[in-house]
Structures are given as C-alpha cells and as structure tokens.
Amino acid sequence: MESDFSSCKKDELWGIIKKFVSLDDKIIDAGCGLGRWVAFLSRKNYKVLGIDNFKQLIERAKRFDRTLELRVADVLKLPFKNEAFDVYLSFGVVEHFEAGPTEALQEARRVLKKGGIIVLETPHDNFLRRTKHFFGFLKRKKKRTSELQFYEYRFKVSELKKFLKNLNFKILAIYPKDLLLDNESIGLWSDFPFLRAKSSDPFKLNIIGILIKKILKPFKFLFSGCVVVIGRKI
Fold first, then answer.
1. Vertex 175, ends 177 and 129: CA angle to 5°?
2. Which residue range or ranges hold the Methyltransferase type domain (predicted)?
3. Is 218 exposed, middle or buried (0-12, 13-18, 19+ CB in 10 A)?
4. Domain covering 2-126+152-180+224-233 assigned CATH 3.40.50.150 in the classification
5. How confident is the model at residue 180 (pLDDT cuts 50, 70, 90)?
6. Three-state SS for 234?
7. Which of 155, 99, 159 is nearest to 130 (CA)?
8. d(CA 156, CA 144)
9. How far is CA 122 from each of CA 87, 171, 226, rounded to the nearest angstrom?
10. Inter-axis angle of helices 55-64 and 36-43, to 10 degrees?
11. Domain boundaries, the chain
12. Cβ–Cβ < 8 Å for 189, 202
C-alpha cells in the first residue's frame, strides 16, 4: 500500500490534477480501490472522499490510514445528493461495465456541481493497438462467443469525447498517458510481447522497446496505454 501511495507523485495524473483541481474543491474518487489517490491527495491537503464497491478494499485502505474518508458505495448509484462535489475522479473504472460507461458518467454528472470537473482515465485504443488487432484478426480463426469473457473496453479519444459531450460536458483537455521512464510502457509492453524485457516486473521494455519508445515519444497518442480526458459540467 505504501509503495502504491508513493507512486502517485511519479504518475502523470498528479500534474494533471494540480492543473485542474484546487485545494478548496470537494473531490470524489469514484472507484478508488485501495485508496492510493485518496491517501496521496489527502496528504497534499486536498479534500477528497473515496468510494469503492468492494468492501475488502475499503477495509484494507482504512487499516493503512484510519484518517482517510472512505465509504463502500456503487459508482452506478452514488449515495450523495445532486451537485455534491466540485471534482469527480475516475481512474480505470468506467471501462469495466459491459453495458458501456454512460450510466456511470450520468451519475458523475448528477453529483457534480455546475461547472464541476471530471478527470476521466481509461485504457486507450491507440493507433498501434488498432493496427495490430486488425492484422491479428485477419490471421486468427474466430472464437466462438461462448469462449470469450468480457473484462474491459479500450476507448478511442473520439469515443470518450462523444460520451462526455452527449452528457453536456465541455472537453477542456485530452492527454495521452503512459509510464514516464524510458524503459517502461503500458501500451508497448501490453500489445507487443517481443518488446518486453526478460524481467518479472511488468511494463519493462527491452533495448528495442526502449529505442522505439524514444522514437515515438513526440507522438505519444500513437502508443499510450491510457488516455485522460478533462471535462466541465455545463
């Protein structure tokens, strides 16, 4: 838990949060898991409440720090009044609903004040990922639907913009997000096994992977494993 907490200051999300969120804002981290961002932001004097549907995760987070504001709750049915928060954080959550993210985003809009900010991070269906899957689809035999099990969606930037605009959010900014170190990448490591280092650590790249990441660095949207969209409720 401590290592998860300390990793926040090295996460690109921290720079984004500082840009769009003030210390006076009332924040909800919806789907907070073990509460690493709740813990980190609380220690930075932000007013943040974390909720998660898994009681075990909330209990573990409370054992780590009993001063944290944490509750067991469902992001699809939040136990808060309308317009209760200034900022809604959602990191790696809405992609896990097989029916799509709309219901969760509707709840986000409901609990946000007018002018409130949503910071939404999801897996990114980037260009390299789509290209690889297209050619892979041509080669492999189709599996029967019964053999497949849903885990998550990966979204294109255009899809996320559409979801938010349909709910009357104004798009303020969009960021590609991956790991900061030159020898690590969520996108390249996940989609191209031949770029992985011979290491038990996830997301570590080999020499070829490091070189490719350096070449593509100015074009981060091509390979980023995640994307972050900032919206304002209007």
1. 55
2. 29-120
3. exposed
4. yes
5. confident
6. coil
7. 155
8. 26
9. 17, 15, 6
10. 30
11. 2-126+152-180+224-233
12. yes
Nearest-angstrom CA–CA distance, 96 and 99: 9
Compute the distance between CA of residue 95 and CA of residue 120 in angstroms, rounded to an integer: 10
Place of tokens 């991070």: 121
pLDDT band at 134; cut points 50, 70, 90: confident
Walk across the sheet containing 85-91 and list its strands: 69-72, 47-52, 26-30, 85-91, 112-123, 226-233, 169-177
Give residue 202's identity as a one-letter amino acid code: P
Q: Quick one: tokens of 74?
A: 């469902």
- Identity at 14, one-letter amino acid code: W
In order, the DSSP letters of 43-88 are: HTT-EEEEEES-HHHHHHHHHH-TTSEEEE-BTTB-SS-TT-EEEE
pLDDT at residue 205, as a whole number: 97
